[in-house]
Design a protein that fits this description.
With 291 residues, the protein is mainly alpha-helical. The protein contains ten helices and four strands. The chain has helices at residues 3-10, 19-30, 46-53, 57-69, 140-179, 189-199, 205-218, 230-235, 255-262, 278-290, and strands spanning 73-79, 85-92, 271-272, 275-276. The strands form two sheets. The chain has a two-stranded antiparallel sheet with strand order 1-2. A two-stranded antiparallel ribbon has the order 3-4. A hairpin with a 2-residue loop joins strand 3 and strand 4. Helix 2 (19-30) packs across helix 4, helix 3 runs parallel beside helix 5 and helix 5 (140-179) packs parallel to helix 7 (205-218). The chain is elongated and about 90 Å long. The two termini are 53 Å apart. 20% of the residues are buried.
Length: 291
């Protein structure tokens, strides 16, 4: 974005156009190249504008009409020499006084009839005086705008994924916290949560929850003052002794079930409503960790 366009954009009254139109105007300014003549200083494609604003084709056209109706921008549509549709140039209010009557140079809302003017040195080719290198029109600003938009969308997606992961972690820990038979004082809760996060690299939440319930059941008739603290119980790996009960013993499985589970498959006899039952899920998870 040129300094000229950004300064002009900052002075536009907030109530002049709606938020969607202002977003479009922002990206028009972002594509503005103050080093070019004002008639060709801004020419992002509609595809790029839809990409960076997230608007539909109809929504984008409505926003452009709103910006033009507010006297902030004027469009100059062009045709290529072969008659096909050429680029649309956006004449911004930072470059020209749009209150004056439109001309083919500053945009008239219809297709421009202007023809290219040949260079006095080299005719229609627009070559430098050396005659060996054609002028390459700069596309720096639109390319930068596209990269900024892609970076912005990637950052937003990463932030959403991290937020969802943090939310799942907090919900899982609260289940463990409430089910454990004895909790430390509140200042130690953060320590327990860190240990819980570390343990999840070794076992699943469902397995750990089962171990917590098994531990709580084993302490039902014991003096609470001899219960373990959750942080120590997790840190020392004491949960491992409660991950499997008698119903999870490998030797109690039939040979056909053992063969299928060892291959990473759930035997039909261990399916419940089309899903592996708790015993099958336990051993399948353990096989995956071992592989």
């Amino acid at each position: 974005m040129s300094h000229k366009a950004s300064s002009w954009l900052a002075d536009i009254p907030a109530d002049l156009i709606n938020a969607g139109a202002f977003r479009v105007l922002f990206h028009l300014c972002d594509a503005h190249n103050s080093k070019r003549p004002y008639a060709t200083a801004c020419f992002p494609s509609q595809e790029l504008l839809r990409q960076v604003t997230g608007l539909s084709n109809g929504g984008l056209n409505n926003a452009l009409n709103s910006i033009e109706g507010a006297g902030l921008m004027r469009r100059r549509r062009t045709r290529n020499p072969d008659g096909t549709k050429g680029p649309t140039y956006y004449i911004l209010g930072c470059d020209v006084d749009l209150s004056i009557d439109p001309t083919p140079e500053n945009g008239d809302g219809t297709i421009s009839k202007l023809e290219a003017k040949p260079s006095p040195n080299s005719g229609l080719n627009h070559l430098h005086s050396t005659g060996d290198k054609p002028v390459i029109e700069p596309v720096k600003e639109p390319v930068i705008a596209r990269k900024r938009a892609n970076d912005l969308f990637s950052a937003e997606n990463e932030a959403d994924e991290k937020s969802k992961a943090d939310e799942d972690l907090s919900q899982g820990f609260e289940e463990i916290w409430k089910a454990f038979p004895r909790k430390p004082n509140m200042p130690g809760k953060d320590v327990c949560k860190r240990e819980y996060k570390r343990v999840l690299k070794k076992v699943s939440h469902a397995e750990l929850m089962r171990a917590v319930r098994a531990y709580a059941k084993s302490r039902e008739n014991e003096d609470p003052k001899f219960h373990s603290r959750l942080s120590k119980w997790l840190r020392d790996g004491n949960y491992e002794g409660f991950l499997t009960g008698p119903e999870y013993r490998w030797d109690d499985l039939r040979p056909a079930q053992q063969t299928a589970l060892a291959d990473g498959r759930c035997p039909p006899s261990m399916l419940e409503n089309g899903e592996p039952n708790a015993v099958a899920a336990h051993w399948l998870a353990k096989m995956r960790r071992a592989s």
